[in-house]
Design brief:
- The protein has about 325 residues and is of the alpha/beta class.
- Helix content is about 50%, strand content about 20%.
- It has 14 helices and eleven strands.
- Strands 2-1-3-10-4-11 form a six-stranded mixed beta sheet, with helices on both faces. Strands 8-5-9 form a three-stranded antiparallel beta sheet, sandwiched between helices. Strands 6-7 form a two-stranded parallel sheet.
- The protein starts with a helix and ends in an 18-residue tail after the last helix.
Length: about 325
């Protein structure tokens, strides 16, 4: 009898040991699964920026990926097509996006749920070519190439033509190519001799075609024609309402990093160019380094930029209402930061 009790006690102790071991393993498995779940639940912040000068404003962030918060990972995308860029905002695929300021107003008029947080590009358009042009009158009868009918470069140039006494439909012949890069190649190859071209690809022309030069600075011409003592806010940063409502600290962190990134590129054009080439943006380091001085990239938060934005949109409203959605945006258009 005693032997049976001893064997029973030993069996119970062995079972307890086995169960204890299983419990320990179970706790480890549960802890591991919890950790994985926490990692998987980390928010992914999607940032979309058009190629060209707007991508340069974020090039340091895209390269170095600064931490915005433990709860968020950031995915940056450089978008090649203006139409694709617009669709990413309309579909709310992007949490943060840089778009032409007039497009931001147009999307707001259609109740696309974003707010303007800052303006970052203050005009990058120049008439570049190999002809002798010293005034707007010298453009009369000329063939001039531009990028995308109805896009910001086209609207700005048409407005300035009219302000300087030229009819865009009768006094000049306008041709349109699909991108700044295509404009640059067309000029370099001699297929055209006058283009409205943005930086930094304008510098690509100046570096590769010795007889090409900057003929008109459309930012300076805008100031004269509009009577506004400032350049125009060509591109602005949009933040989705969902992001600003639920993750205001992440938004604050992003805006601080963007401001630092813009300060950095203006102080380090050579390194910015190296980043741009390394990230395969289509821009060569030397082109970026040369073109940054004419790229007018600076960070101005919505509160400070609002008056300039409103003046810009008023001009576009008077000239071509459809380019901003037919009405001026109200104060809810701007992120209150």
């Amino acid at each position: 009898m005693m032997r049976k009790l001893i064997l029973l006690a030993m069996s119970i102790l062995l079972l307890i040991g086995i169960l204890a071991g299983c419990g320990s393993n179970s706790q480890e498995v549960i802890a591991e699964k919890t950790e994985k779940t926490q990692i998987q639940e980390k928010s992914v912040l999607k940032v979309a920026v058009p190629d060209g000068v707007t991508a340069l404003s974020m090039i340091k962030m895209i390269k170095e990926k600064p931490e915005l918060g433990e709860e968020v990972e950031v995915s940056y995308e450089i978008v090649k097509s203006p139409d694709l860029m617009a669709s990413k905002v309309i579909s709310q695929e992007a949490d943060i996006a840089v778009v032409p300021t007039n497009l931001a107003a147009m999307l707001y008029s259609k109740n696309v749920p974003y707010k303007l947080a800052a303006s970052t590009v203050w005009g990058v358009l120049y008439v570049v070519g190999t002809e002798e042009v010293k005034s707007w009158e010298d453009l009369k009868g000329k063939e001039i190439y531009n990028m995308g009918r109805g896009l910001t470069p086209d609207v700005i140039f048409r407005y300035l033509l009219e302000k300087n006494g030229l009819n865009p439909e009768k006094d000049v012949v306008l041709h349109y190519l699909s991108s700044g890069q295509e404009l640059a190649q067309s000029l370099i190859s001699g297929k055209n001799s006058l283009s409205v071209i943005p930086e930094p690809v304008g510098s690509q022309v100046l570096l590769q075609k010795q007889d090409a030069k900057v003929l008109l600075d459309l930012q300076a011409e805008w100031e004269k024609a509009s009577g506004i003592n400032a350049s125009y806010p060509q591109a602005s940063l949009l933040i989705s309402n969902n992001l600003s409502d639920k993750h205001s600290q992440v938004v604050d962190n992003f805006l601080k990093e963007l401001e630092l990134s813009i300060q950095w590129i203006n102080q380090n054009p050579g390194q910015a160019g190296a980043y741009a080439e390394e990230l395969q943006t289509g821009m060569k380091a030397k082109v970026v380094e040369t073109g940054l001085v004419r790229s007018n990239i600076r960070y101005v938060g919505a509160k400070e930029a609002r008056s300039a934005i409103e003046e810009y949109l008023k001009v576009l409203m008077d000239f071509s209402p459809e380019t901003i959605g037919g009405k001026l945006p109200d104060e809810s258009f701007y992120l209150a930061k």
